[in-house]
Design goal:
Residues 15-135 form the Putative oxidoreductase/dehydrogenase Rossmann-like domain. The protein is elongated and about 65 Å long. It has helices at residues 30-39, 52-61, 70-76, 89-98, 121-125, 144-148, 163-172, 185-212, 218-236, 244-247, 250-263, 268-284, 290-302, and strands at residues 20-24, 43-48, 79-82, 107-110, 129-135, 153-157, 176-179. With 321 residues, the protein is of the alpha/beta class. It folds into two domains: 7-180, Rossmann fold; 188-302, N-(1-d-carboxylethyl)-l-norvaline Dehydrogenase, domain 2 (Orthogonal Bundle), CATH 1.10.1040.
Length: 321
Amino acid sequence: MNASVSREALDARDRPARLTVGVVGAGRVGPALAASLQLAGHRPVAVSGVSDASVRRAAALLPDVPLVTPAEVLARAELVLLTVPDDTLPGLVEGLAETGAVRPGQLLVHTSGRYGTQVLDPALRAGALPLALHPAMTFTGSSVDVQRLAGCSFGVTAPEELRLAAEALVIEMGGEPEWIAEESRPLYHAALALGSNHLVTLVAQSMDLLRQAGVGAPDRMLGPLLGAALDNALRSGDAALTGPVARGDAGTVSAHIRELRAHAPQTVAGYLAMARATADRALDHGLLKPESAEALLGVLSDGGAANGTNGPGAPGPGEKR
């Protein structure tokens, strides 16, 4: 099913019937998905959560939906969202199946990026219908998440006979289904983590350093720059690479590393790793010329260690220590 299919394009027979919906794990994801399904005409009937934050999220996004045990969620709902941490999911599924909580014909949906449907095999043996629907989105735990689902891609894995139903549910939530094979789920999830989770770390580190440099509003300074860089990268890929690494400015990179060692040594390893990866990609795509790369790679290999020689790590021409 093409990801560009609209809600209106779904044939009525491919739409899931209006379902009662339950949520096991009221973290940031589950209540938002259930609220989105409610907008599509489904009916949330039960939610489970342990922490005070979970209870507050459930109350805010799913008002008047009772808070019950996981087993009771499965007893009340035809469609159950298992929105728990990845490492918790296998044990939860096994426990629910072993205690007889899973009912034949029940749609059991997990939202883990790491797993496909095999993790739901204990529930499948109990007669459940397994779906893996992972929203490629970061969640805040607030109502804004429901709005962000519009146009959000979902990594979809399901048995062939449930494929249309899985994709229909995604489209009803405003999302765009993208089929991911079972064996590709770990690689798919690693790619998303590399692009989104690490981005937050890089941006936070950059803001910290700008504050140390005396910038009063680092978010305002970075916003337009990072927005343009992201847009350029999505449009042009490696051709969007700019900066001293892509240019082969070894002296500048050496100066960066010395400053980071002096003011934020915890960032040096990350800087070096990303600079090496950037240099490799720039070389592969012809942006960094081999003759310019030698000194740069020497600095990166040396770790930018400042010393009294003119070798790697020493100041470049016209550069002060």
